[in-house]
Amino acid sequence: MNKKTWLVIIGILIIGVIGVVGGICLMTSPTSELDSSSNTQDTSTNQQEGNNSDQNNEDNNSNKKIAIIYFSATGNTKKVAEYIKDATDGDLIEIVPKEKYTDSDLNYGNDNSRANREQNDSNARPEIENNINTDSYDVIYLGYPIWWGDVPKIILTFLDSHNLNGKTIIPFCTSGSTPITTSLNTLKNYNKNVVWIDGSRFSSSTSQNEIKNWVNELNY
Q1: What is the spatial distance between Cα 118 and Cα 107, in angstroms, rounded to a whole number?
Q2: For residues 220 and 205, what is the distance between their CA atoms, to the nearest angstrom?
Q3: Nearest Cα residue to 94 out of 72, 125, 115
Q4: N or C: which terminus of the chain has fewer CB atoms within 10 Å of its end residue's CB?
Q5: pTM attached to this predicted model
């Protein structure tokens, strides 16, 4: 073959190679876009599933029936209980002692005062005057003042009087400065079949907004 013929053949081969390479590029490009689109779709799906899970948790909590059950001798715990009711739209129930506590009963300086005698007697169980039905409630906020660093014995009367096994109970207390820790341990050890949630202590000056924020953080 002469030189001109060789040049023609080489030109045809180069054109053929360019065509094959171009075809491969055209074939692979849509696949890459499809993979990218698929990954985006997977991410979107996962995010949607996460949102659905959060929504389901909120729905489950919103279906729980709530009671705010409290004992209050001076009114401080009652005020906090009322704030919790407003924040949860639960049922407000007071533990009413059969024998009301007087100022002299609560005289901490008198070793022979009624409250002193009860708190020092491990078997003391003051009677409750009103009937309280807890059967229909899933979550109970249980409120009380701190007496001598612990729960008033009438709270143990309440625990003795009801089958609370499996229920979620959130203690809350009021005091001048004493934390909830000791009373919380007393409650946890008294009935270990309850789902106890670590509660909180409040002072007489705690605002309604602070209570609302606490309730929202609990998400019950």
Answers
A1: 12
A2: 24
A3: 72
A4: N
A5: 0.73
Task: Show pLDDT as tens, one digit a residue, over the chain (220 residues).
Answer: 544 454 445 555 555 544 444 444 434 443 333 333 334 344 444 455 555 544 554 555 568 899 999 999 999 999 999 999 999 999 999 999 999 999 999 998 999 999 999 999 999 999 999 999 999 999 999 999 999 999 999 999 999 999 999 999 999 999 999 999 999 999 999 999 999 999 999 999 999 999 999 999 999 8
Question: Amino acid letter at 169?
Answer: I
Distance CA 142, CA 170 (A): 6
Q: Quote the radius of gyration of the chain (alpha carbons, Å).
A: 35
Strands 168-174 and 91-94, sheet pairing = unpaired
Tell the residue number behind the tokens 């008033």, with chain if given: 152
Token couple for 99: 């024998």
**Amino acid occupying residue 216:** N
Find the DSSP H helices in 63-91.
Answer: 76-88
CB 124 within 8 A of CB 187: no
* Range 66-218: architecture per CATH: 3-Layer(aba) Sandwich (3.40)
